[in-house]
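sry for the spam today, last one i promise. struct tokens for design, 132 residues
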């Protein structure tokens, strides 16, 4: 996904769950337990993606920081210019039944179900939004 975004000439951004102690990011930029990181070549140095983590050096308000994000804490990746990307979830996707037709693509997507409240005990799913 990162290669596709870069090949299109767009700016890749990671959405990170920063609630884990293993996530090394400047905490003053974390909002609602998440941080969005610009991972373009012009915004990072020593960028590497390993099997366990994404690591790089970056500047925040002119101050250099070493960033380390375990792969389990990456919630999604998207292109800043278009908002296109991918959101990662822990929920396995069931394959569609074989006897049903595949729906045709439409211009609009159905509205997602409303989030369950705290009384429901359901885990809030990550969402992708355009950040300007």
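last one done:
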């Amino acid at each position: 996904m990162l290669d596709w975004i870069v090949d299109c000439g767009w700016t890749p951004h990671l959405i990170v769950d920063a609630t884990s102690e293993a996530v090394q990011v400047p905490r003053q930029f974390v909002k609602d337990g998440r941080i969005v990181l610009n991972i373009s070549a012009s915004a990072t140095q020593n960028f590497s993606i390993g099997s366990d983590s994404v690591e790089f050096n970056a500047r925040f308000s002119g101050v250099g920081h070493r960033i380390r994000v375990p792969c389990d804490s990456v919630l999604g990746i998207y292109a800043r210019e278009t908002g296109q990307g991918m959101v990662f979830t822990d929920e396995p996707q069931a394959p569609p039944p074989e006897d049903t037709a595949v729906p045709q693509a439409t211009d609009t997507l159905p509205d997602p179900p409303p989030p369950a409240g705290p009384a429901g005990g359901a885990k809030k799913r990550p969402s992708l939004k355009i950040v300007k």
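The beta strands are 12-17, 34-38, 44-49, 53-60, 63-70, 74-79, 85-87. ok im logging off now
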